[in-house]
Amino acid sequence: MLTNLRIFAMNHQTIPSAHINNLCCYKIRASFKRLKPYVLLGRNYSSLPGLIGNDIKSLHSVINPPIAKIRNIGIMAHIDAGKTTTTERILYYSGYTRSLGDVDDGDTVTDFMAQERERGITIQSAAVTFDWKGYRVNLIDTPGHVDFTLEVERCLRVLDGAVAVFDASAGVEAQTLTVWRQADKHKIPRICFLNKMDKTGASFKYAVESIREKLKAKPLLLQLPIGEAKTFKGLVDVVTKEKLLWNSNSNDGKDFERKPLLEVSDPELLKETIEARNALIEQVADLDDEFADLVLGEFSENFDLLPAEKLQNAIHRVTLAQTAVPVLCGSALKNKGVQPLLDAVTMYLPSPEERNYEFLERISRLLLPFADQHIEISSLTAGNIALTVGLKHTATGDTLVSSKSSALAAARRAEREEEKQHRKNNEAERLLLAGVEIPEPVFFCTIEPPSVAKQPDLEHALKCLQREDPSLKVRLDPDSGQTILCGMGELHIEIIHDRIKREYGLETYLGPLQVAYRETILNSACATDTLDRTLGDQRHLVTVEVEARPIETSSLMPVIEYAESIHEDLLKVSQGAIENGIHSACLQGPLLGSPVQDVAITLHSLTVHPGTSTTMISACVSRCVQKALKKADKQVLEPLMNLEVTVARDYLSPVLGDLAQRRGNIQEIQTRQDNKVVIGFVPLAEIMGYSTALRTLTSGSATFALELSTYQAMNPQDQNTLLNRRSGLT
Ligand SMILES: Nc1nc2c(ncn2[C@@H]2O[C@H](COP(=O)(O)OP(=O)(O)OP(=O)(O)O)[C@@H](O)[C@H]2O)c(=O)[nH]1
């Protein structure tokens, strides 16, 4: 099975795109053509799926495995739970790498970006393809850091299943909740893997409880650990009543034995396993009618006689219906429990045909991903994930379809179905993949190229990066003409800066990082304005009267209303221009030039001289709305973050003291093993550079997670300080 790709690569041959016929980019059916895969030089891969030696076992099975044998899965978790380490083990055991990569040594396959290797974190999702016991698995390793949440979401929406990895000593953590909610939104069946069972403080029971309580999920305990923390040495398979022990002399975990539990040798463990199995059977029977009939009929007297296969089939159905989640455990770092996890992926997560997708798309080149390396292929069947190149106008969040007419037909159907929502018909969801919800950036800073001549290069780099990562926003400051970079966090902006340098060869300069504030008004105010300008021999004359008032919506989009006196015919021709004017005025509030939220704008009167252009109407409306906003009492809103700090007991006091100085509001302090978990809110402006401060306060022993909660009104004193600082008074 092992082959050296370097040899294989010398024989490669690419297929001219003219030969490629009927290609598809996602969930497609197409004709098969013979070709040799194109492989960039392999680093430490021993073989690509289905290849033996320099030859190809069966091209058809390499590229087009039967759809029932495909699993498209993602790995998701809180930062540092061990996704990348688990993925490395998966690649090694499935035979596609020859050595075990290590996050701490910076030589993993899926964290291939330089920044990922240097920092030991996942930033970009990486796709890899491998085979496991006759199944083709397309796996995506997603980032755990909150700044890259969008990256997780854009992966989840094209996956059929996911493995949620937990640190068994921490259970459900802040970002686990976020990714779990995202998976709920995209209706992704899941398996939980309680990793780090070898770590001090690891607790199977605690982690399972946290899944039940915090994720409100029903855990199905398919395994029990044998030992915990330092004593962790193996697992019990509850379904088959077998114990799995890893050979302590084996340093790669390949060598383990699976033995039935026997009364003579393991009486206690067998008793515990039978109890767990009976509980599992009852739990599954409660969720699956077909299984309930079987259990209550044939096997009601003795669950022990129930064949493992029947139970496995029922667990598969329950997982697919997302009424419960299978829970497994292990230690990726100590090479224990990963092979059974792979078995569970093939056994319990769905194949693409068990989920509903149905689109075709013609494209020019198709590539099978293997982290940062690709094989060019001519076609692939429904249910696979592939890469394509050259779609210039396509960005994250788009659904590709076979033709304009089918896109229009799908959109029309989706619209009709949306209207019928009360009938709970989910046809529209089947047709179009749900769009990615792009979170609003909370930080921004200026970015400058090394010289004016390099401005177009910077614009090009930012355009490309934005298409990849829609959570990155770029805009021009209308006053200074500077380019502004808006991102999800300090790390996000830092990584973008670094990528521009490494990938586009541009050394750029960032201005100080600033918080993205918003503004609102506290009372109503009216304003009138007239614009009278003659351009050439055309006179443009508009008079407008508007009222701005506060409303409770938490929305950046102003509500627009029209007084009855505004003539319908006038609205017909100028409504677009009026609304443009209102929106552009609300983008720059009077206090800080930040977007204005929670306002309604009423147009009380509008008179337009014949021949006046719509641009002039927009300009006049915009100016008038800004006047009204300026007259009202104004309020700055600041981003408030949910903060979760996990800290050793001894360091709790300094952490709390520091948070008090940062205007933190502590909601709860939980106990998690030997640690304390501080949960609360803190204004974003106060938490810049927190990772360094926390490291110093706790000798590097604490971790924290941050997530935008809401925008809250600043108190008058803090607001004054901010406004004075901005206007250079302090
Ligand atoms: N004790 C122990 N440590 C582990 C285990 N798995 C991973 N680690 C360590 O935990 C740290 C994080 O591991 P990663 O695999 O990078 O975690 P990740 O979830 O991919 O991290 P991000 O992608 O950055 O969110 C590294 O120092 C690993 O060596 C495990 O099973 N036991």
TrEMBL record:
Entry's Gene Ontology molecular function annotations: GTP binding; GTPase activity
Organism field: Callithrix jacchus (White-tufted-ear marmoset)
Primary residence: mitochondrion
Chain's role: Mitochondrial GTPase that mediates the disassembly of ribosomes from messenger RNA at the termination of mitochondrial protein biosynthesis. Acts in collaboration with MRRF. GTP hydrolysis follows the ribosome disassembly and probably occurs on the ribosome large subunit. Not involved in the GTP-dependent ribosomal translocation step during translation elongation.
GO biological process: mitochondrial translation; ribosome disassembly
HAMAP family: mEF_G_2
Residues holding GTP: 77-84, 141-145, 195-198
Residue intervals of the Tr-type G domain: 68-353
A cellular component term, taken from the record's GO annotations: mitochondrial matrix
PROSITE patterns xrefs: G_TR_1, G_TR_2
Domain of life the protein comes from: Eukaryota
Reaction(s) catalysed (UniProt annotation): GTP + H2O = GDP + phosphate + H(+)
Keywords carried by this UniProt record: GTP-binding, Mitochondrion, Nucleotide-binding, Protein biosynthesis
Positions of transmembrane segments: none
Protein name: Ribosome-releasing factor 2, mitochondrial
Location in the cell: Mitochondrion
UniProt family annotation: Belongs to the TRAFAC class translation factor GTPase superfamily. Classic translation factor GTPase family. EF-G/EF-2 subfamily.
CDD domains (UniProt xref): EF-G, EFG_III, EFG_mtEFG_C, mtEFG2_like_IV
InterPro entries for this protein: EFG2, EFG_II, EFG_III, EFG_III/V, EFG_V, EFG_V-like, G_TR_CS, P-loop_NTPase
